Amino acid sequence: xxxxxxxxxxxxxxxxxxxxxxxxxxxxxxxxxxxxxxxxxxxxxxxxxxxxxxxxxxxxxxxxxxxxxxxxxxxxxxxxxxxxxxxxxxxxxxxxxxxxxxxxxxxxxxxxxxxxxxxxxxxxxxxxxxxxxxxxxxxxxxxxxxxxxxxxxxxxxxxxxxxxxxxxxxxxxxxxxxxxxxxxxxxxxxxxxxxxxxxxxxxxxxxxxxxxxxxxxxxxxxxxxxxxxxxxxxxxxxxxxxxxxxxxxxxxxxxxxxxxxxxxxxxxxxxxxxxxxxxxxxxxxxxxxxxxxxxxxxxxxxxxxxxxxxxxxxxxxxxxxxxxxxxxxxxxxxxxxxxxxxxxxxxxxxxxxxxxxxxxxxxxxxxxxxxxxxxxxxxxxxxx
Length: 384
Ligand SMILES: NC(=O)c1ccc[n+]([C@@H]2O[C@H](COP(=O)([O-])OP(=O)(O)OC[C@H]3O[C@@H](n4cnc5c(N)ncnc54)[C@H](O)[C@@H]3O)[C@@H](O)[C@H]2O)c1
What we know:
With about 375 residues, the chain is of the alpha/beta class. The protein has two domains: about 160 residues, Rossmann fold; about 190 residues, Dihydrodipicolinate Reductase, domain 2. It contains ten helices and 15 strands. β11 and β12 form a beta hairpin. The longest helix is centred in the C-terminal third of the chain and has 20 residues. The radius of gyration is 21 Å and the shape is globular. The protein binds nicotinamide-adenine-dinucleotide. Nicotinamide-adenine-dinucleotide binds next to loops.
């Protein structure tokens, strides 16, 4: 079956501001680590006013606003914030388990949503968000800012150029050797807050990098295994001096999966927060006419430190073409926020639409179902 090329229509290169005539009123739900990146980027926009913030930890939202000299009301309950302060949109920066409840409530109350990644914990929640979005007529953009990196966009351009021919195999993931994220917040390792570990934190980026490049074909089946050997071992926290985290650890720290995608594409995926290995390999996109090697590092996060290479044949001989690294100095957070605002102003499609990220979430959901059942599972995505 052919890949739906219409998925290529989203233009993620938009950098130019389309300024709103009246200030857009923005609220922030969840004022932990990443909310600071949202707020700083909003403050760079001349047509934005931060009108409220909220965090379920008493006093945290007040402190957050005060740090930036913003005079606006702070709340503990996001419903109270949405109900009492008129606004156009919210940034949802809460931990994963609360993405769905906050997004659905905001949409039901007529607000546009910039939702942090991963979209949700389960596929059911992702479907709920998509349905609420459709019903509301508002937009939800999911927080995959690496898509705005010029090198990342080059991957998609290379695939779209036809240089690789028909893509039939992809290997992606990479991952970290020692990188369980407990230095700024321990919410990432607790199941009742994060719900997902390495797969939801960084695996979703690797999936987005390659799926976006090939037009987000539908996933059909998943065979996966997620494990927690590193997270459960106190020795894994030696560098951060937090051995007690091993007790708390209740998510995945490593996963591998074999995914069949519509259009006869195989996706071979691995991700790690902790492993006794430097990398699980570069990202490889292999097609009938050429192959693209993307150096592992944290490229899925928009951090490229080596050039990509295209492997192809010239007059029957194998040759390699190096794609020079692009360092345009642009700020991915400013682009992420601006592209969201531009879509609100123009009534355009969300820069990172839920129609695509639903498939990302369906793969994640499949990995955990397959891991629990010990066998391959079919991916069934309900109509939105
Ligand atoms: N795009 C990126 O580069 C990026 C980077 C880091 C984290 N994230 C994502 O951002 C989200 C938050 O991560 P973080 O590092 O800021 O975590 P964090 O633990 O530092 O902050 C989360 C905050 O949300 C608050 N919160 C949770 N539920 C709430 C609710 N219902 N109402 C109000 N406040 C609530 C918590 O009290 C906490 O202060 C996660 O989903 C994570 O995956 C994205």
